[in-house]
Amino acid sequence: MSRFDREWSEYKTGIAAAFRPGPPLRHKIELTTKRIEAQIQYLNGAISLLTQRDKALFQKVVDAYSKHDMKRANVYANELAEIRKMANFMMNAELALERVALRLKTVTEVGNVAAVLAPVSRVLQSVRAGIAGVFPSAERELGEITTLLDEIMI
Predict the structure, then answer these.
(1) Residue 67: what are its φ and ψ, rounded to 5°?
(2) Rounded CA gap, 139 and 63, in Å?
(3) Euclidean distance between the first and final Cα of the chain, in Å?
(4) Rounded CA Rg of the chain
(5) How far from 28 is each of 8, 32, 33, CA to CA, in Å?
(6) Half-sphere exposure of residue 53: CA atoms within 13 angstroms, side-chain side
(7) Are 145 and 31 in contact, with CB atoms under 8 Å apart?
(8) Per-residue DSSP letters for 36-70?
(9) 11 with 17: CB under 8 angstroms?
């Protein structure tokens, strides 16, 4: 059994385990994938709430225009535009996380860790930077996921 095969599927033993104990790479990658999928579900919930809010505000815009209340319609329309921007950003973040999850699943199937994970870390960093202002808890979780990926690559 090669060194990579041992690190991939077995727990470490001996001196290496004393300095850097931990589960095998496969388990770390599976844990990371599950955490990313949890963040995707969280974003899905937020997107659905924003979509509901979008529909309600759009109806208010239509009602205000039909009553010829242009100032109120403009206020609602501006808020609607902001909600749509945020929803669009969240959809892009969700797609990026789905891409990362797919890449990690590919890693578990193929096993070529270093070559496949390098771009994943960069994508996670960019998503984390973008989502920091919108969802601090998701930003913190993505930071932990990035740390897990860095441990896997080391």
Answers:
(1) -95, 5
(2) 38
(3) 21
(4) 22
(5) 10, 6, 9
(6) 17
(7) no
(8) HHHHHHHHHHHHHHHHHHHHHHHHHHHHHHHTT-H
(9) yes
pTM of this structure: 0.66
- How far is it, in rounded angstroms, from Cα 127 to Cα 108? 22
| Predicted confidence (pLDDT) per residue in 94-125, tens digit | 999 999 999 888 888 776 666 667 777 788 88
For residue range 127-143, list pLDDT tens digits in order. Answer: 888 888 887 888 888 88
Rounded to the nearest 5°, which phi and psi values hold at 153? -75, -25
Q: Match 């403009």 to its residue by tokens.
A: 74
Least confident of 41-45, 55-59, 129-133: 129-133
- Residue boundaries of the structural domains of the chain: 25-153
115 Cβ neighbours under 8 A, 6+ residues apart: none
Distances (CA, A) of 109 to 3, 70, 104, 105, 112: 18, 58, 9, 6, 9
